[in-house]
Automatic annotation (TrEMBL):
Residues 298-349 form the LRRCT domain. It comes from Vombatus ursinus (Common wombat). Keywords: Leucine-rich repeat, Repeat, Signal. Pfam families: LRR_8. Coiled coil: none annotated. This is LRRCT domain-containing protein. InterPro entries: Cys-rich_flank_reg_C, Leu-rich_rpt, Leu-rich_rpt_typical-subtyp, LRR_dom_sf, LRR_TM_domain-containing. GO terms for cellular component: plasma membrane. Residues 1-38 form the signal peptide.
Amino acid sequence: MFSYNSEPGQSLATCGMGSSLAMQLLLFLLLFPSLGQGVPWCPKACNCTLPVNGTSATCGPLDSFPKGLPVDTTFVFIEYTNLSQLSSDALKGLPNLKELHLAGNRIDNVSSGLLTLTPTLKVLDLTGNTLSELPSGLFRNSAALHSLVLKGNRLQTLKANWLEGLVALNWLDVSANQLQRLPPDLLLNFTALNILDLSDNMLLELPPSLLKGLPNLERLHLEGNQLQTLAKGTFSATPHLCYLFLQGNKLSNLPSSIFSTLGELDMLDLSNNLLAQVPDGLLDKMGQMRVGFDLSENPWKCDEKLCGLYHWLLNNQDRMFFKNKTLCDSPEDQAGQMLLEVAKKRVCPKQ
């Protein structure tokens, strides 16, 4: 409260202090206008919000990457629009970008320099575009990237130099492409990778050494391919694998030791293949199958050669999925019967 007894010097000092604070506040708002508006300044085609850790921008419809996004932008969503090209300077001025979501566009080409100025990028989602290749060196400055999703593009192969620099990659999804073969050295030293999704491609075989550089792999999707067998030792370097999906292939025979190193396996799906017989002991050394297993939709030949499988099924039947769809295809007198029921009736030598 103003006092008439105040000294003139004191009043002047108080007045000057107030003016100074007002000028500082005005300058602050000029430098950081987004704080005065509640949301940052944003390009016309975008909607920007200001969560705790930086600006989040959702843009579209548009056919080119928007310019003038706030420098503190950390999340960008440009999905299901007409974006077709990503030039080398598209992300210029976004040094704090952490997630880039570009699903459902028409992107058929990206520049090798696209990610050069975004060293903090952690998530890149390019689902559902028309990419047939990636430029070498694209990820040379992407040491922080932990999730790369290339699902639903037109990739017919993958090359090791496309992925160089992804030292922290935790999740790689290249499902629903047109992959037929993969180079053996594709994934060397991807020691942080936990999830690999190769499902719904056209893979005819899996290189025996493909998984050698993935010691921490926990989840592997191979379903929906054209695999006829798996080479001995395919999983020898993935002891922590917990989920293995092999359904919807053309598997007709498997090496007896193929699963012997998977002591932590919780889920195995072998359904909808061409398995009629499996070697004794095939499943004996796997993990506890705490989630379960699926052997349905195979043409099982239910004779004495399946005795090893019968014993294993009886000991693990409580974790068996789709028992009523796991049927014998032959011999004729067993055709149509549930495999588990035949296992209960079949007299086999004790193991």
